[in-house]
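Form 7-S
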Amino acid sequence: MPLITERVALARRGANDKVICRMASGWAVMGDVQFLPGYCLLLPDPVVPSLNDLDTAGRTAYLLDMARLGDAALQATGALRMNYEILGNSEPELHCHIFPRYATEPEQHRKMPAWFYDWKTATPYAEEQHGELRQKIAELLQASS
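Output:
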């Protein structure tokens, strides 16, 4: 089963511990790693191959949810800005990476895409360590709906 399809299936069953909340277009989830605290993703439900496979209403809902999730993560983290990336090259199903970017990042990373971080040694998401931030993002999303 493709990764995004698997993660959405887990979210539907209440078995994805990284779920922030259900949104109109899909699922807001924390990233598997947290090298940038507050890194999250928006997974569409139902899963589609790309943004181009959604009709106008679906695109509108997805992109609005993406911005709302970014607003909430920005407010919860106090980050300098948010980066949004929809790629699909490795996982060919629609999903958006939402990266908080910080003024305190190491100089060699600050102006580069988040993909230049070492993902293999990055801090994995752990509810004990990141759950409070996940909950704060969820509360901000709830308050803005």
